Amino acid sequence: LITAIKKLKGGDHRQDDTSIRPMISRSSAATVEKSVNEAVKAGTKILVGGKQREAFMEPTILEDTPFDTDARKEEIFNPMILLYSYNDFKEAVKEANNTYYGLQASVFTYDLNKVFYAFEHIEAGGVCLNNSPSTCVDSQPYGGIKDSGIQREGVKYTMDDMLETKVLVMCNIGNASYF
C-alpha cells in the first residue's frame, strides 16, 4: 500500500497522469496538515505523506490514530488513510463505528461471512467491498447516516427528495364515473 501511495502523482487535474489533485484551497490543505501534526503528537505514526505544499496535501497513511484527534473524529475530506490492526473482525467493526460520521465504508476481504456481517453492522450509508467508497453509479443511493447527513445522491433518490408524495384513498364510490 505504501509503495502504491508513493507512486501517485499529484498535480494539475487536466493532465492524464495526475492521480492526486490539489484541495479546494491552501487553508483546507493547512487544516489537514494541522490535523496530521496533532495526531502525531498524540502518538500516531505517519507511514507515508503528511506534508502540505500550497493547496496540495500529500497522500497520507496514519497508523493507530487516537479517537480524540481531528484526523480521526472529524470528516476531513482529503487523501488520507487511517490504519488500525485488529485480531477480531467484530471488534474492528465496532471500532469503525466509533465516529460521529457515517458516509461510506470499505471492507477488503474474500470472506462472505465478514462481508455480510460488515454490511449489517457498519453504521454507514453504504459499504463497498474491495474498492474505495467513491465507487458510485447514478442508480445507487449514495449518501450517509449520523452527522454525514440523511440525503441520498443518485438521479432517482435526488428526484424523490424534490417531490411531495401524495396518496388518494377512495372508498365506497359505487358507480362513480370519470368525466
TrEMBL record:
- Would the keyword Oxidoreductase be found if you checked this record's keyword annotation? yes
- Outline the extent of the Aldehyde dehydrogenase domain: 2-167
Top-tier EC class: oxidoreductase
Which interval of the chain is the signal sequence? none
Reactions this protein catalyses: D-glyceraldehyde 3-phosphate + NADP(+) + H2O = (2R)-3-phosphoglycerate + NADPH + 2 H(+)
Picking any one GO molecular function of the record gives: glyceraldehyde-3-phosphate dehydrogenase (NADP+) (non-phosphorylating) activity
Q: Which UniProt keywords apply?
A: Oxidoreductase
Reading the lineage from the top rank, the first entry is Eukaryota
Give the EC number(s) listed in the UniProt record: 1.2.1.9
Instruction: List the Pfam families.
Output: Aldedh
Is Iron found in the keyword set?
A: no
Instruction: Give the family this protein belongs to, as stated in its UniProt record.
Output: Belongs to the aldehyde dehydrogenase family.
PANTHER family on file: ALDEHYDE DEHYDROGENASE
Q: What is this protein called?
A: NADP-dependent glyceraldehyde-3-phosphate dehydrogenase
